[in-house]
Amino acid sequence: MKKYLLTQKRWNAIITNDNRLDGNFYYGVTSTKIFCKPSCSSKSPKKDNVVIFKTVSEAMKLGFRPCKRCHPTGIKVSNDEWIIQIESYLKKNFKRKLTLNIIAEDCHSSPYYLQRTFKKMVNKTPLTYLSEIRLNYAKNLLKDTELTINNISLQSGFSSDTYFMTFFKKETGITPSEFRSKVKGDIYG
Length: 189
Ligand SMILES: [Zn+2]
Hints:
A four-stranded mixed sheet has the order 3-1-2-4. It has nine helices and four strands; from the N terminus they run αβββαβααααααα. α3 (79-93) packs parallel to α6 and α4 packs across α5 (111-122). It is elongated and about 60 Å long. A hairpin with a 4-residue loop joins β1 (26-29) and β2 (34-36). The protein folds into two domains: 1-72, 3-Layer(aba) Sandwich (DNA Methylphosphotriester Repair Domain); 128-188, Arc Repressor Mutant, subunit A, CATH 1.10.10.60. With 189 residues, the protein is α+β, with helices and mostly antiparallel strands. Residues 36, 40, 42, 67, 69-70, 108 line the site of zinc ion (ZN). Zinc ion binds next to loops. Keywords: Activator, DNA damage, DNA repair, DNA-binding, Metal-binding, Methyltransferase, Transcription, Transcription regulation, Transferase, Zinc. Residues 84-182 form the HTH araC/xylS-type domain. This is Putative ada regulatory protein. GO terms for molecular function: DNA-binding transcription factor activity; methyltransferase activity; sequence-specific DNA binding; zinc ion binding. Its cofactor is Zn(2+).
């Protein structure tokens, strides 16, 4: 597929939400896999993460999804589709330090609206969903690697190993070390 340049003119249009270039190009953000019209009022992306498209179908072919705020395809993005975007964003970015504000900004919404919609559709908050992804990832590392607990908590996106151990015990009833001996014992014993 042809690669289009992020020219100064295009970049200016993105950061000033200029609607005069709407229809002329679209831009995707690689960290979120969401694409927008130049005029979208979402927070300006990091320049390094921007990819330019000439058509909606180019963006979709590469797995980018339309932004809920500016709906670049001209069709309103349904809540179902938006939830899929948020979930895949969280699965891709769980290792980063994330807050509700960051998630909302990256998924092009207000924190309040994101929290309310996610909870209504998924029956849990986005942060609970995120903790579950982190927990499952940590479980796999405990099972498949010899990494230390501290290392695993960091790699899984937990803010500290103390928090990781507390959360792990709360969710599973056992400590990470107990979990590790148990699964490794099941394999070798
Ligand atoms: Zn947008």
